[in-house]
Amino acid sequence: MKYKVVFDPLAKLDLKEIFLYVAVNDNIQSANKLLDAIEETCYKLEKYPDRGHIPPELKTTGIKSYLEIHYKPYRIIYEIENNLVYVHSVIDGRRNIQEILSNRFLR
User: Fold this and answer.
1) Which of 27, 66, 97, 101 is exposed most, by the fewest CB atoms within 10 A?
2) Domain boundary assignment for the chain
3) Partner residues linked to 66 by β-bridges
4) Topology given in CATH for the domain delimited by 4-105
């Protein structure tokens, strides 16, 4: 079965923020390269959507529908629904993940 990867608005905003941060603090080429690599990692979910694991911060809440994969230091949080893979967040793993996930998924 072929899956389709869809980025929700929050994930698109995450990618935009990552790009802008790297562009300002490093350079545009690095930002483009990083963005391409993260997106490529996300699109690999079209073939292998089950390869992720439940984020440890969500395990304790009982929420088990979200999975994550990594493009270090970034954590890509997604959900599989039928043949769609919804990418919900691309978060820098060095940030307070518990707080970010609580704000986004536990409302």
Assistant:
1) 27
2) 4-105
3) 79
4) YaeB-like fold (3.30.2310)
In angstroms, the Cα distances linking 30 to 15, 33, 42, 43, 79 are: 14, 5, 18, 20, 28
Locate the DSSP E strands across 24-65. Answer: none
* Residue 82, both tokens: 């039928």
Which residue(s) pair with 5 in the sheet? Answer: 85
The CA-atom distances, in angstroms, between 60 and each of 55, 83, 98, 106 are: 9, 27, 11, 12
pLDDT tens profile 3-58: 999 999 999 999 999 999 999 999 999 999 999 999 999 999 999 999 999 998 88
What's the longest Cα–Cα distance across the chain?
A: 41
E strand or H helix at 67, and its extent?
Answer: strand 66-71
Q: pLDDT by residue (tens digit) across 50-103?
A: 999 999 888 877 778 899 999 999 999 999 999 999 999 999 988 888 888 778
